[in-house]
Write a structure and sequence with these properties.
about 250 residues, DNA-binding, 12 helices, two-stranded antiparallel ribbon, single chain, 2 domains, Arc Repressor Mutant, subunit A, alpha+beta
DNA sequence: GTCGCCAGCCACACCGCATA
DNA sequence: TATGCGGTGTGGCTGGCGAC
């Protein structure tokens, strides 16, 4: 990430994202995984040489990081700050005028709006519901800025997420991250990432296609019991019969 | 309207690595 | 060692945009 940039530097940095192909790469990489250059090229629908050129620019600009293993070039977002930047820019972007053209595209959009990963934490309807429930239950408090409470430390320990190792990292423990589908904050930071991983470990959630996350029946029961979340709100989009707030 | 510049894209050739 | 595959670099084409 670049700090203290002058106008020219800021314009150059913004120009990195002002291209549909490069922006598409960054959105794809929000799933937190490392992609090969070829995978990103196919996902964006451009030639490998085109993708290679764009990726070189994004890496040089500090938005992406690369790791070469043999003949593969693995690409990921440079850091969680980049993920937050991309997610918030997406949240402020105008809604596309054209609705999804195919049933598959509509289903994928609905799945992402329902629950997905935002780099390494939960986003979408699930992420926002979780964020709100944690505030209601006193796990989080925002009277002086978003913070983890003593009750929250105990609750996390009960869930199998010790907080002390998280404090040792340089990341903020808890942080708001503006959700681009719900237009409301979901939980990011070290605790957000730890909860996302713990839910997967416990089998409360499973990874779907791409960035999509699904809540399992056991997960719905557990989230209802531990956080008071309404299981009806956690039902997958198909069974609720309503489309996404935004495709 | 024309010209020049720039950015994005692709086809192609080439290189390096993994595998049979 | 030969072959196939993933990734890179280069050259050319195209479209957008500003200057004249």
């Amino acid at each position: 990430m670049t700090t203290g940039a002058d106008g020219r530097g800021l314009a150059g940095f913004a120009a990195l994202l002002a291209d549909p192909t490069r922006a598409g790469f960054c959105l794809a990489l929000l799933d937190g995984r490392a992609w090969t250059a070829g995978e990103l090229a196919r996902a964006a629908g451009v030639a490998a040489s085109t993708a290679s050129d764009h990726l070189t620019r994004l890496v040089a600009g500090g938005l992406l990081a690369e790791e070469r293993q043999g003949r593969h070039r693995y690409i990921r977002l440079a850091d969680p700050g980049v993920a937050q930047l991309v997610e918030e820019l997406a949240a402020r972007a105008p809604t596309p005028a054209t609705p999804p053209r195919t049933l598959r595209a509509a289903s994928e959009g609905a799945a992402l709006a329902y629950a997905r990963t935002c780099y390494d934490h939960l986003a979408g309807r699930l992420g926002v519901l979780l964020h709100d429930a944690l505030l209601t239950r006193g796990v989080l408090d925002r009277s002086g800025g978003l913070a983890l409470t003593g009750t929250g430390v105990t609750w996390l320990a009960g869930l199998g997420v010790p907080v002390e190792p998280l404090r040792a990292t340089r990341r903020p423990l808890v942080r708001d991250c503006l959700d681009w589908t719900e237009r409301r904050p979901h939980l990011a930071g070290a605790v957000g990432a730890a909860l996302c991983g713990r839910f997967l470990d416990l089998g409360w959630t499973v990874r779907g296609t791409g960035r999509a996350i699904r809540v399992t029946p056991a997960g719905r029961d557990a989230l209802a019991e531990t956080l008071g979340l309404d299981p009806a709100l956690l039902a997958p989009p198909a069974s609720r019969g309503s489309g996404p707030a935004r495709a």
